[in-house]
Specification:
18 strands
Amino acid sequence: MALDIPLPQHILAHGWWLVNGGEKMSKSAGNVVNPMDYMEKYGIDAFRYFLAREMVVGQDANFTHEGFVRRINSDLANDLGNVLNRVHRLVLTNFEGKLPAPAALDDAANEVITIANRVRTNVMEWIPQVKLSQVVEEIMTLVRSVNRYLEVKAPWKLAKDPALKDELATVLYVSAEAVRLSLCLLWPVIPGKSEEGLAMIGSKFTDQNDLVWGILKGGEQFGEGKPLFPRIEEEVKKQPQQQQKPKQNKPLMAADVPAAMDLRVAQIVEVADHPDANSLYVLKVDAGEGEPRTICSGLKNSYKPEELQNRKILLFANLKPNALRGIMSQGMLFAGDLDAEAHTCRLVSVPEDAKPGDRALFKGVAPSEPRELKVKDFEKIALSVKGGAVFCGETALEVNGKAVTCDVADGNGVH
């Protein structure tokens, strides 16, 4: 002020790194974490990735060795490392180490491209807002979409049939380009490993102009390959139970609830009557998690069992499990009010091409740090139908950029 220099318009305040379930680090208490030890043993990129991904800027975050190992193995070894190694190996084996040019793109390939463009748009929008954790997680959705794409197309099977050479070429090109874009977007977090990974697929990162789809053209010579992030295989020692303190999440304000809700596409795979409640069904739903979830839902007045079988729904995945008449319900599904007197409703509908596990997000709202919510948290907001689509206030609910809808009258609530 004395020098007549303009004052800052925005001050960034990060949270605390906590240990032992909620304690602040203190030299006097001796509960500090030495970052140099982690960087020396696991590499600076792995350590930087964990810090960027795990802390939502502005909130506290908990540092545990178990959490570090789990995050690195899951995101970097299993997801990113796995897809890069798959593509690298298949191109070396089937195309003499040169990336093939793509042939015709099918729906599965176009879906990967759509996700890639969405991820890039969100990343460029969220970085100036310092949503670092959300940016990293968004990039990893692209990485996981490539793994799903490879599982669906099974290029290792295509490679066995010479007549499917063009389809194999397309699958490997689309996968390699998606991996390239992912590594470029992750460059600020893992620059060393990004450079190594890009070299494996015959590419490099120069500047922001590389952050678009289609930089690879086909014909790139792949380099030598080795696992970017070897899986951490070690016995993690758990702290004695008495030293563990449960993390106390701060109560959510209404404005924070949409970002905190983990809403996912799920598919009903089994419908049964509740043995002790005439109005309830017991549903088994596939939410893309490997094992189905059990959901107790009061849909008997609205749907027959055969109408629910194999139907896609919207699941409230991070709602605290609750026992309903002796059966633990692991989440709830969403439906719009049809007739209040008759207690009937219509299930919320997700886009036709949505798959179990796909995330539903409120447009423009980045997901916040994962946490368990309660029904009273959801009751702080109101969902309703406008023009056939589901809204929270003026914010639309979408899956992969497409509207979540409900076949009830405009203005009716969604619960």
